[in-house]
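I am writing to request your help with a piece of structural work I have in hand. I am sending you one protein, given as its amino acid sequence and as whole-number tokens for its backbone shapes. Kindly check, if you would, that the fold set down in the tokens agrees with what the sequence suggests. You will find the record immediately after this paragraph:
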Amino acid sequence: MCGGCGRLGFASGGDAAVGSAGGSDAGSANHDAAAPSCAGFDVCDQFETADLAPIWTAYGAVTHSTLAHRGTGSVHFTMPALAAGMMGGAVIEETATFATGAPPFWLRAWVRFGAHADPHNNLELLSADQSVSGGLADYVFAEADKTTLYSQFDNRTSDLPVAIPLETWTCLIWHVVPDGGTMSLDGDLGTSTFTGVTNGTPTLSVIEIGPNLSATNVTVDQPAFEVWIDDVIVHHAAVTCAD
């Protein structure tokens, strides 16, 4: 496992492409569900409009979708087909969370997978990085048979032996304490906890959300697949799936 290896090549070559709905969207049974207010959170986005909010920067095939967890919109990510040893992905990034330093944070996201990455490939889904151009990072990996916390700062992992289910919305809550050296994952899949080194110099500066495969993590050919993400909150205090 090598989170973010080759990230600079991917990010610098990606094209932001946020617009009308794409992929295999077919509507959602949750369109009429009322979304709670975003008031009071550091970062909160329900992705109801066709354009991303200014805090986000998109790389790769990122579009607006009408397949929503709540409301009428979400972000749709298309992971491109990759040959073994190639890198690629589709992500959105924000730096607002760390604008005044690297505090502990909670990240809540509702995610929906159309397919998993090949079991031999290690897929990054969430990360907190030292820099938009690389450096070390903390990660949540979404694999075909498990969901993994990983810190590049000391190369340690904590596996939750449950994969994100397909074709349904799943709540993930990721908690990172940079100075305290702890990470945890809660939500619909259960709980996993990691204690180790989760920060360094320079400090964390960017949150990245979306499917990404580094070249060293693509050991076999990877078919294209789709991921949807909705109702994202990043906050310096605890959040829940109901927020």
In short: The helical segments are 7-13. The radius of gyration is 16 Å. Residues 7-33+44-235 form a domain with the Jelly Rolls fold (CATH 2.60.120.200).
